[in-house]
Amino acid sequence: MRNLVLLFALAAAGGFIPHDVAAQGAASVTPIADVTFSLRTEITNGQMVFIGNAGPIKDVVNPDLRVAEGAVVAITITNNDGAMHDIAVPEFDAQSDQLVGVGSATTIVFRATKSGTFEYICTIPGHKLAGMAGNLIVGDVKEVVSTALDVAKNPAEVGTPVGDRGPEHVTYDLLTTEVEGRLSDGSTYRYWTFDNTVPGPFLRIRQGDTVTINLKNAEDSINIHSVDFHSVTGPGGGAAVTQVRPGETKSFTFKALHPGLFVYHCATPMIAHHISNGMYGMILVEPEGGLPAVDKEYYVMQGELYTAQKHGSRGLQEFSVDKLLDEKPEHLMFNGSMDALTKTFDMNADVGEEVRIFFGVGGPNLTSSFHLIGEVFDRVYNLASFTSPPLTDVQTTLVPPGGATMVEFKVDYPGKYILVDHALSRAEKGLTGILTVHGEADATIFDSDETIDAASGH
To answer: Do 324 and 386 fall within a single domain?
Structure first.
């Protein structure tokens, strides 16, 4: 490494700067680095990663790289797995060439001009998502305890099945809030919610029930809010009578005439803005006699955020009306945050169990191609119709914005099964979840001597 740094100095003295350095602009680079790091690429435990080569970071996966503010930093990576890779620190405009072949190496050199925590990543499409990301920590960065609310919705909160009870009068109290919530590690967003989660609470009633909705807008809100239930027969689905000012409460009562799984959302102009910010949820209207019993039920909704900052930016993300109108979201998520269904909450089942997923799209704009990698839906209640025969043996099902579906399937083999929108570039913006199946493997169903590769999405 010492020789490599001396090479930079000699090359610069002769007017030559390595391509990776020159691309950043010679005026911003000092040839001799103050601190150097050596990393190699690996595929370990089914993930693509960076691993430290020497010193305190030796053999550490995606190690934290700590430097002083103002230091000139050199990071060298060596290809140790044969796949194409690179390395970049986007915050400092540092970008390497691509590496192809075992043993190839490249170095980036840049000045860490500001303090904070910044990502170093592989920019080859899919590689960051597969695990190739770590932190460059510049200066004396103190760990800050975030005060942002975790708005991610627990998918296991599905209410109590109605069973074979008769019609009843049911009352739900909903609170609209405006809170700074956690979007991902290091980033937040000013969400608008029902009951402080995205999506809002899963409401569960019976066909024929009489339902009273009391909608209160929190005193510290600065916007008017409302609620439109797609299950309601009446003006605006209730929105026409629930435009509530901060601190105000309004109510309405409706009769649940139709069974099904229905979206509800805020319907205050600009409606798409309110929905995108997190104001959506679902209400299940079970048919007379209730739904058949299953072993596990989960509540999942897909949403979009339109921010001025690029996906992956740190700090508070700000709403962009232009991107909303252009229908170009920077972030897509299941249940409110980038990792709600991969890190925050676990979805589990045992081999042999029947699983039911209530799935909806808050939107406000994109249609979902809902798919579970490695499984086939035994039954799909298309567009959440309970009075039509379900589709059977379905790989992927379309769900429009403001729409829903109910899928059921038996899990037959252990492993991690990935929930996606099969418009798969959206996974790069956060749209993934994991269902973990536990139990004994059946070699008659699936068998291989190879190691399971998590980077392939399993």
So the answer is: yes
DSSP 444: T
Domain for residue 406, yes or no?
yes
Bridge partner list, 415: 437
pLDDT in tens, 272-326: 999 999 999 999 999 999 999 999 999 999 999 999 999 888 889 999 999 999 9
Distance spanning both ends of the chain, measured CA to CA: 37
Chain centre distance of CA 398: 19
The CA–CA distances, whole Å, from 367 to 237, 386, 452 equal 22, 21, 31
Whether 316 and 450 share a structural domain: yes
pLDDT (tens digit, 9 = 90+) per residue, 1-56? 334 434 443 333 333 334 444 334 333 444 578 999 999 999 887 789 999 999 99
Three-state SS for 246?
Answer: coil
Q: How many CB atoms lie within 10 A of CB 169?
A: 9
- For residue 294, count other CB atoms closer than 10 A to its CB: 15
Q: Residue 437 — pLDDT band, cuts 50, 70, 90?
A: very high
Last residue of a domain, one of 253, 286, 319: 286
Neighbours of 211 (CB within 10 A): 23
Q: pLDDT tier at 450 (50, 70, 90 boundaries)?
A: confident
DSSP secondary-structure letter at 61? B
Q: Which of 338, 352, 336, 339 is nearest to 299 (CA)?
A: 336
| Residues linked to residue 314 through DSSP beta bridges, in sequence order | none
Q: How far is CA 287 from CA 144, 153, 163, 292, 380, in A?
A: 49, 25, 10, 10, 16
Residue identified by tokens 């190879």 is 450
275 and 320 fall within a common domain: no
CA 271 to chain centre: 23
Do residues 332 and 433 share a domain?
yes
